[in-house]
Write a structure and sequence with these properties.
Oligomer: single chain
Shape: globular
Number of strands: 14
Helix content: 10-25%
Low-confidence stretches: 1-6, 17-25
Mean pLDDT: 80
Strand content: 25-35%
Length: about 230
């Protein structure tokens, strides 16, 4: 994790091992010579848990008074396999920046701002641990994710399926418009963003269980995710 501009480092001292692509924008930069580049270590997997105090760093282009505090405190509100939500304030332009525990270890990378600036989302460091070997080998890590073919919407009664694509995995499994989503792979699913994350972390051909309420019944469906159709 770099905390100063690479303009301060000679071009011969670093090289990009692998850059991202439209499906994955992570990149790995290696120091090829003995240069003093400040960094902080990544936290071990599963060290950060819900309720932990954390802090974020902003000001990606250098200090800017208009961006507010440089260090912002908060706590982890929820943590899933592919997404972490905190009340630690981040602002536009902070995406890609580090989220720390109080040991100074990086526990996540800022992903996006929620509906309010103290409801924000981060990629947990566990995802980077999982891909580090491939990145160090110079491989592009691309996850297009499996395709379900069901669109949901937050309504008064819960997360409701409002569209089933004809011929999709959702239709073949038996899901119907009007079903209220209760869980995906036994993990509670409360909003549209969580739904997208729950589905998107699984690969084409993977099977997932989706539990819904239909009228007075609670039903569980085994769904085999398919490849996203071309537009």
């Amino acid at each position: 994790m770099l905390f100063r501009s690479l303009n301060d480092v000679a071009a011969d001292d670093v090289r990009v091992l692998v850059t991202g692509n439209p499906a994955n924008t992570n990149a790995l930069i290696a120091a090829t010579n003995a240069v003093d580049i400040p960094y902080r270590p990544m936290a071990p997997s599963d060290k950060a848990v819900t309720g932990d105090w954390i802090f974020s760093m902003g000001h990606p282009g250098g200090y800017n008074k208009a961006r507010g505090s440089v260090v912002r405190l908060g706590r982890i509100i929820s943590k899933r396999s592919a997404r972490m939500r905190t009340d630690c304030k981040i602002v536009m332009g902070d995406s890609g920046g580090p989220l720390f525990n109080f040991d100074g270890e990086v526990i996540g990378i800022h992903s996006r701002i929620g509906r309010i600036d103290t409801e924000n989302y981060h990629c947990p460091i566990e995802a980077y641990h999982a891909d580090m070997g491939a990145l160090q080998a110079g491989s592009v890590v691309s996850r297009q994710g499996g395709y379900l073919g069901a669109a949901v919407r937050n309504e008064a009664e819960g997360l409701v399926i409002r569209l089933i694509v004809e011929g999709s995995a959702a239709e073949k499994a038996g899901l119907e418009e009007g079903d209220i989503v209760l869980s995906v792979k036994d993990e509670e699913c409360l909003d549209v963003d969580e739904w997208k994350t729950r589905i998107g972390v699984h690969e084409i051909g993977e099977r997932i269980s989706i539990k819904v309420q239909r009228d007075e019944e609670v039903l569980e469906f085994d769904v085999k995710l398919s490849k996203r159709p071309r537009r």
